[in-house]
Amino acid sequence: MLRNIPLLLAITREVVKAVKVPVTVKTRLGWDCNNKIIVELAEQLQDCGISALTIHGRTRSQMYNGEADWTLIGEVKNNPRMTIPIIGNGDITTPQKLVEYYDRYGVDGIMVGRASIGAPWIFSEMKHYLATGEMPVITDSEKMALLRRQIDESIDRIDEYRGILHIRRHLAATPLLKGIYNFRDTRIAMLQANTRDELVAILDRIESDILPNRDNLKTKTV
């Protein structure tokens, strides 16, 4: 749609007219580095009647390469014509960076994506740091409990087969298990698990045998 703005706006207007709930849009700076149109596009989308706008600080052509450019997000937020909430997105990986960018660019909110993969506790960390300026202490047991909850909720929302396909890559990527020596086989087992029972059995073993002894193991990036 970033290559066909008239159609993008037409669809947005029709969606706003067709539903009774607030309509929000998430988009990027533009299609490529020669077409960073977000400042003008934001006004046009607002005129379509949307209730909030989330902006990812990369172009579509960038995908996830390079750094997110928040300067244009800030320009949209500081545009006096804009009255709807502006939410920034891109490369927010720590509570400290969230606070820095929130203050620097004045956005109404910040969306966190990839940094939460395998680390759902990051939202509690960010909320606490935003309120207090201090990092909370979240134990390994609390983090493991959140990962188990993700398994159950993923299955409940979809079904066991697709829920496991969705969540197992999150588990395999979790920073909780980074740097554990000789962990490769366990990670592969998580990626190949097909049922809740298989995943839970793997987590049980990790929690009972690996995490309590991780400080005694030789660490190695795997």
Overview of the structural elements:
With 222 residues, this protein is of the alpha/beta class. It folds into two domains: 5-132, TIM Barrel (Alpha-Beta Barrel), CATH 3.20.20.70; 140-215. It has helices at residues 5-18, 38-47, 71-77, 95-105, 122-132, 140-157, 160-172, 184-192, 196-210; strands spanning 24-28, 52-56, 86-89, 109-111. The chain has a four-stranded parallel beta sheet, covered by helices on one side. β3, α4 and β4 (109-111) form a beta-alpha-beta unit. The protein is elongated and about 60 Å long. It starts with a helix and ends in a 12-residue tail after the last helix. The relative contact order is 0.08. The mean pLDDT is 93.
What topology does this entry show?
Blueprint: H1 5-18, E1 24-28, H2 38-47, E2 52-56, H3 71-77, E3 86-89, H4 95-105, E4 109-111, H5 122-132, H6 140-157, H7 160-172, H8 184-192, H9 196-210
Parallel strand pairs: 1-2, 2-3, 3-4
Helix pairs in contact: 4-5, 6-7, 6-9, 7-8
